[in-house]
Amino acid sequence: MLTQHSAGHWRTSSYSGGNNCVEVGGVAGCARVRDTKNRSAGYFTISSQQWSSFVSAIKMGRYDICA
Known about the structure:
Elements: E1 2-3, E2 11-12, E3 22-27, E4 30-35, E5 43-47, H1 48-59
């Protein structure tokens, strides 16, 4: 679900290298995700459980790109 930008607290990974990543913001039971380079485009919202599963999969290497 895409939503217009609204005020709130957004976090960017310290590994992002500036404007080359996504930002995450939390609201009651959900995570909001937006593009750092295009904040005005809005964000999408997923459940906290979906976000936790996604982060766990990243940590396990599920989305690693093989050279």
